Amino acid sequence: MAFKIIASQCTQCGACEFECPSGAIELKRDNYVIDPDKCTECEGAFETQQCAAVCPVPKTCVPA
User: Fold this and answer.
1) For the structural domain made of 3-63, what CATH number should be given?
2) Domain boundaries, the chain
3) Which is one GO molecular function term here (predicted)?
4) pLDDT by residue, tens only, the chain of 64 residues
């Protein structure tokens, strides 16, 4: 399963894009999105999902 970003809550700060170890997050049309084919949920790299850990708005990066 991959993570997703709730667009209506996202502040477009960009913190998640730079923390994603699999390069699954990018800005598309003023919204950050997670490519589910690239998202590994940080398994093997971190104990917690980095997008959710660095996001300033709680529950914006969530399991899809």
Assistant:
1) 3.30.70.20
2) 3-63
3) 4 iron, 4 sulfur cluster binding
4) 799 999 999 999 999 999 999 999 999 999 999 999 999 999 999 999 999 999 999 999 999 9
Which tokens go with 31? 């919204």
| Cα–Cα distance, 11 to 55 (Å, whole number) | 9
Q: What is the DSSP string of 5-48?
A: E-TTT-----HHHHH-TT--EEEETTEEEE-TTT--TTTTT-SS
| pTM for the predicted model, two decimal places | 0.90
